[in-house]
Amino acid sequence: MTGLRARQKRLRHERILDAALLLFREAGYDAVRTEDIAAAAEVSVGTLYNYFENKGDLLLALVTLEVEEVLEQGVAVVKSPPADIAEALNLLIGGYYDHSNTYLTKELWRTAMALTIQAAETPFSQRFTALDRSLTDQVCALVAELQRRGLARGDVDAVALGQVIFNTLNQMFIEFVKLEEMTIEALKAAVARQVEALALLLAAPGPSLRPLD
Amino acid sequence: MTGLRARQKRLRHERILDAALLLFREAGYDAVRTEDIAAAAEVSVGTLYNYFENKGDLLLALVTLEVEEVLEQGVAVVKSPPADIAEALNLLIGGYYDHSNTYLTKELWRTAMALTIQAAETPFSQRFTALDRSLTDQVCALVAELQRRGLARGDVDAVALGQVIFNTLNQMFIEFVKLEEMTIEALKAAVARQVEALALLLAAPGPSLRPLD
DNA sequence: CTTTAAATTTGAGCGAACTCAATAATTTTC
DNA sequence: GAAAATTATTGAGTTCGCTCAAATTTAAAG
Questions:
Q1: Is B39 part of any domain?
Q2: B165: domain CATH number?
Q3: Same structural domain, A4 and A102
Q4: Which 8-state DSSP code applies to residue B209?
Q5: Which 32-61 positions of A have CB less than 7 A from strand C?
Q6: pLDDT tens-digit profile of B53-80?
Q7: Which residues of A fall within a CB distance of 8 Å from B210?
Q8: Beta bridge mates, B203
Q9: How many domains does chain B have?
Q10: Per the domain annotation, does A26 fall within a domain?
Q11: Window B:127-186, CB contacts with A under 8 Å
């Protein structure tokens, strides 16, 4: 049987997290004090800090939830993408963007991203960065899959190009969360223009272009 | 004649900034307290906040200095770029990276970027974002120039592609400042691989490829 | 040169994240 | 089952960014 201590530990951990996530989403990160979270979880502030490094650590739980679901969703697209390059990329990226407000608000995304950059080399940042890397890998996988199917030029470095695409979709997402009034549709449109340009370059040489030698 | 008031104002502003920049670079952003800056500038904390919105505003001065010099440097590259696409892009981007540690350390960059994201819609963020936009424009201008010279495919959206390139170089720079042990050479190598991929796609149809119709 | 008005400086005080020595609860030992 | 040892909780206290009412300095008016 699990000892009383272990059981209480699990329970408290869960209660603190639940309280934090609820309050963050309902009032925003900055407006919620650690004291409020502790009170809602019926523990003292000291205990809260016994379970989590800092306030940001609590936020990471939400982010992880969000990104892991997004990754799962992406698997299907990579497995059998549309035959058109731009369409395939927009489907994957659009899936990321559409899911992005399931658990997190723009403010929470901003905070999470800021913490990741500022407090680099902390567990928080490293876990966040690992999620980013998983997303990059997924984009690379899609590019490779498009090449495998002969839909995209095979002579280009799929990993390098996948990184470029992830970097640009991520940077555009940062701009999106920075502008409170920008809609997801506007974000998608801006990225679609970039995807269009890349898709044109990446198009497999068709009947109108052919090596001479 | 400039009144006593105006003269003292200019002097104090300058003294505060100088003190902040010196202390930031020598001890790091977090380690320096606003009280320390005020003391070094021989004013009270209240006065410091009369001249600057907040601690981050002081950092912005350094960032602005850095980016404005970088932009100036880039003008020459855009005006007469090397004939090779990859070489031209790497020259511009390498120039950005090489200059990046002239006034700022990695820690200061991290802080500045984090503040820009977190405190979006503040003057700080908007000025930083404007600098980013200038850099994007410069990359776009280089792509357009390469097209004008017939070095790059002319049928692709130069603005969209320029944005993609800036986004990726910026994101890679973020990764760089996040890893304290990563060298500029390693950063350049990683970006060069991406530039290589794009340059291949962007190569103007040469003697070995030609439209059939 | 006073008096009045305007602008500027000042530093004690506030709020919120986080710490740590004292206390309490649980487990182990005999 | 009592005592000792281990582990966890607690909340007052510390720190630092930032504010604001009072005091001071400079400029303008009479």
A1: yes
A2: 1.10.357.10
A3: no
A4: E
A5: 32-35, 45-46, 49, 54-56
A6: 999 999 988 898 899 999 999 999 999 9
A7: 209, 212
A8: B152
A9: 2
A10: yes
A11: 129, 153, 155-157, 160-161, 163-164, 167-168, 170-172, 174, 177-180
